Amino acid sequence: MKADNSEYWKANLRLVYFCLTVWFIVSFGCGLLLVDVLNNFSLGGYKLGFWFAQQGSIYVFLFLVFFYAFRMNQLDKKFGVQE
User: Fold this and answer.
1) What is the domain extent for residue 57?
2) Which of 71, 77, 78, 36 is nearest to 53 (CA)?
3) Rounded to an integer, what distance in angstroms lies between the CA atom of residue 6 and that of residue 2?
């Protein structure tokens, strides 16, 4: 039982770290660091760097929330701790 709990939390933390890394890359990387490179492209009439800084990171965050919930349901079923 103790080993299962340890593996469950390791898998949970890997998922959290993955989501946080993606969120950081999109919000900080695309919204601040790569804004000049991304501004060479446009999306809906707006420069892509501006779009990522204003809207894109929010959309990615919402996607990550649903992705996390979906993957956690899978992990819960795998380790037998579903509701």
Assistant:
1) 19-76
2) 36
3) 6
Residue 56 lies in a domain: yes
Angle between helices 2-24 and 57-79 (to 10 degrees): 170
57's tokens: 């990171």
Report the candidate in 59, 39, 60, 61 with the shortest Cα–Cα distance to residue 49: 39
Instruction: Give the model confidence (pLDDT) of 9-60 as tens digits.
Output: 999 999 999 999 999 998 888 888 888 898 899 878 888 888 878 888 899 9
If DSSP codes are grouped into helix, strand and coil, which group holds residue 82? coil
Longest dimension (CA), the chain: 56
In the chain, what are the helix, strand and coil shares in percent, each to the nearest 5? 80, 5, 15
Kindly state the tokens that stand for 79: 């380790």
Q: Decide if 4 is inside a domain.
A: no
